[in-house]
Specification:
This protein is of the alpha+beta class and 432 residues long. It folds into two domains: 28-196, no CATH class; 232-431, Heat Shock Protein 90. The protein contains eight helices and eleven strands. The strands form three sheets. Strands 6-8-9-11-10 form a five-stranded mixed β-sheet. Strand 3 (125-133) and strand 4 (140-146) form a beta hairpin. The radius of gyration is 48 Å and the shape is rod-shaped.
């Protein structure tokens, strides 16, 4: 069976997960991070600059208003002579006027009520006008200030802000590139580890980087690779187990065909053996296919184990090892292929351990099946490894039988274990 290959992982700043329209330019992660840092920096600088401009404007304006208010009070209290020239004439930036004392007051100024007035337009020039209401017989006092100086200063400040933002933009571009490169360096290292992974090497994992976010990614990838290796191992186990388990039925079929070719006096017996071997091979394949597929279970039916186990042993036992049966009547609803594969592997393992002159005892009592041999037992250091795939003990074997047996047992919720006997040999115990 062909095994699937893990999807290739690519690291490219211009790569994207979602499909894009033809001709559309894809912005990579590094560019997105750089743009985000650049945007945040410019936004923060612009907000701070505007706040400074607004603060300076209001401070300067309040200072100017306080100065004009004091100047107007001083003019009124000292009885200073009002200006006779209209606003904008001469070099003075401010003028003082009084109703009744100024020969000709500008209509735009005369129409203003008491208080401060911004942007009073007179002859194309904007003025700041402060009007003070005096007693009824004294009229009003006016002080007019040319605000062009304030406007020019505001424009210069705005130009300074734009220049400052341009400088910040250049520095932010340089810093964003360096910061994003440094921030993505651990990710690049993780991608480098992924690229160096060899599909032929089992048990490889990614080294967790010193970054909580990337550690989550590496742990997720390690979990995925472990699951993928388990799937591949199950498929390899299926291939090995299929050839292993089908060898006996094929031998039976071949022997029965030879009998038929030799002209057996009673052809019904060889044909019955062929039918039984074919049925058993089909059940074994059903169980092994379920082994290689996580979400598939073989078909179950009621089994008379005390009757089936000797038949299965007859198919598998081709040596001179003695078999002793201690079977209590037992019925079990399960997949016949799964039970046969587990039992045949346990029996083959026990026969191989016992040797040609040894003895194997098969006990069936209630929900427990035991296969006991009188061989040398399993070395203590090898006991934790006997169910691992491709592990071969000192008595040989393919290294796949016990792994397949335990995997099938776990798929059905059964417990399979192997322990040494105190008197010598080993006991394989299957609890349904």
């Amino acid at each position: 069976m062909a095994t699937a290959s893990p999807p290739a992982l690519h690291h490219d700043d211009e790569a994207a997960d979602a499909p894009k329209a033809p001709g559309a330019r894809v912005v990579g992660l590094r560019h997105r991070l750089a743009l985000a840092l650049l945007g945040l920096t410019l936004t923060a600088a612009a907000i701070q600059g505007l706040c400074f401009l607004a603060l300076e404007y209001w401070i300067e304006r309040d200072s100017l208003i306080s100065m004009l208010d004091r100047e107007l009070d001083y003019m009124v209290e000292t009885g200073a002579a009002p200006s006779t020239e209209p606003p904008g004439v001469g070099n003075l930036r401010q003028r003082y006027y009084r109703t009744g004392q100024t020969a000709q007051l500008n209509p735009a100024i005369a129409a203003l009520g008491p208080g401060l007035h911004d942007d009073v337009l007179i002859a194309g020039v904007h003025y700041l006008v402060l009007v003070q209401e005096l007693s009824e017989d004294r009229g009003r006092a006016y002080i007019v200030y040319d605000s062009r100086r304030l406007q020019g200063r505001g424009q210069r400040q705005l130009i300074s802000l734009v220049i400052g933002l341009a400088v910040v933009l250049v520095i932010a571009l340089w810093g964003a590139r360096r910061l994003t490169r440094a921030a993505l360096q651990p990710l690049a290292g993780l991608v480098g580890q992924i690229r160096r992974l060899d599909p032929e090497q089992r048990g490889r994992s990614l080294v967790a980087v010193d970054d909580p976010d990337l550690t989550v990614i590496s742990d997720a990838l390690n979990t995925y690779m472990a699951r993928f290796e388990a799937v591949v191992e199950r498929e390899r186990a299926f291939s090995s187990a299929a050839s292993h388990e089908l060898r006996t039925p094929l031998s039976v079929i071949r022997g029965a065909v030879e009998l038929l070719e030799a002209g057996a006096p009673d052809p019904t017996r060889p044909l019955a053996r062929i039918r039984r071997a074919v049925a058993q091979a089909q059940a074994d394949l059903d169980a092994l296919l379920a082994l290689s597929r996580l979400r598939e279970s073989p078909t179950s039916r009621e089994l008379a184990l005390d009757t089936l186990l000797p038949e299965w042993a007859e198919l598998d036992n081709t040596t001179t090892t003695r078999l002793a049966w201690r079977l209590a009547p037992t019925r079990l609803i399960a997949s016949p292929g799964s039970v046969h594969v587990i039992f045949s592997n346990l029996l083959r393992n026990a026969v191989r351990a016992a040797g040609p002159n040894g003895e194997v005892i098969i006990e069936l009592a209630g929900p427990v099946l035991r296969v006991i041999d009188n061989g040398p037992g399993v070395p203590v250091g090898e006991l934790p490894l006997v169910f691992e795939p491709h592990f071969r003990g000192r008595d040989g074997g393919t290294g796949i039988g016990l792994y397949v047996a335990r995997t099938l047992a776990r798929r059905h919720g059964w417990d399979l274990r192997l322990v040494n006997r105190a008197s010598g040999g080993a006991v394989a115990e299957l609890r349904f």
